[in-house]
Amino acid sequence: MRNLSERGILTVVSGFSGSGKGTLMRELLKHYDCYVLSISATSRKPRPGEKEGESYFFKTREEFEEMIRKGELLEHAEYVGNYYGTPKKFVDEKLAEGKDVILEIEIDGAMQIRDKYPDALLVFVTPPDAKELRRRIESRGTEDKENIEKRMRRAEMESYGMAGYDYIVVNDDLEECTRLLHGIIQASHYRPEHQREFLDQIRKELKQED
Ligand code: 5GP
Q1: Nearest CA to 134 among 117, 114, 150?
Q2: d(CA 3, ligand 1 centre) in Å
Q3: pLDDT band at 70, cuts 50/70/90?
Q4: Which of 28, 44, 145, 200 is most buried (CB neighbours < 10 A)?
Q5: Cα dihedral sign, 184-153-82-127
Q6: DSSP 3-state assignment of 105?
Q7: How far is CA 114 from the centre of its chain?
Q8: Distances from the Cα of 192 to the Cαs of 3, 5, 13, 180, in angstroms?
Q9: CA 130 to chain centre
Q10: Which of 124, 129, 120, 90 is CA-nearest to residue 107?
Q11: Residue 144's pLDDT is what?
């Protein structure tokens, strides 16, 4: 069926640290070529194996604050003591090219996006239960004990914001979850707010028919 919207859909994917949303994003990009993932800037130190410009653009706090001052970020937030933010230029360019752009960001940033882009789609990814969340954070082996507790407390706080999202997806089975997320995003193309040009066109045509 013809896809009526020409611009891409801006999708925010949030989830507790340890929800498996990073793996989910990799699966989505591997299976479908309509998506691009925005690379965030952060003042957090790289974890082993993380690469500049692939995982994040790693910045000092001063460099990050300079990006804020220059208006280069679409949104930004502090998370467990570090800055995170979305570079604006890349997102605007890719949406105009018709790509569906994914922002994998936390909840404060998600709410800023909702204010600036009311048509954005907000999806929250969660593990099936709190025990599984703790197990996933611990088994990653990248956080010390204090940071694990901080991330669990942060998850509790974030759980109150989940209801503000458009969809909540339980990440239990990776393949199923990938297909579900793809379906949700693609269905959004057919919502009236993404079909304004088509609506204008068909109204004009029908008027001429009168
Ligand atoms: P991590 O340190 O585990 O890579 O990321 C911590 C949190 O920051 C995650 O919830 C992640 O989604 C979020 N995050 C990553 N990039 C951005 C961003 O550009 N903006 C915001 N607001 N959050 C981000």
Answers
A1: 150
A2: 31
A3: very high
A4: 28
A5: negative
A6: coil
A7: 12
A8: 12, 9, 22, 21
A9: 22
A10: 124
A11: 87
Q: Which amino acid is at 41?
A: A
Kindly report the protein residue whose alpha carbon is nearest to atom 15 of ligand 1: 105
| pLDDT score at 142 | 79
Q: Is the pLDDT higher at 187 or at 3?
A: 187
Q: What is the pLDDT confidence band of residue 3, given thresholds at 50, 70 and 90?
A: low
pLDDT in tens, 143-195: 889 989 998 999 999 999 999 999 999 999 999 999 999 999 999 999 999 89
The 3-class SS string of 12-52 reads EEEECCCCCHHHHHHHHHHHCCCEEECCCEECCCCCCCCCE
**Model pTM score:** 0.90
Instruction: Quote the ligand 1 centre to 40 CA distance (angstroms).
Output: 8
Q: Based on C-alpha coordinates, what's the Rg of the chain?
A: 19
Residue nearest to atom 3 of ligand 1 (CA): 17
DSSP string, 123-153: EEEE-SSHHHHHHHHHHH--S-HHHHHHHHH
What domains does the chain contain, in order, with CATH numbers? Answer: 10-38+99-203 (3.40.50.300)
Whether residue 209 contacts residue 29, with contact meaning beta carbons closer than 8 Å, is answered with no
Sign of CA dihedral 39, 11, 36, 6: negative
How far away, in angstroms, is 98 Cα from ligand 1 center? Answer: 25
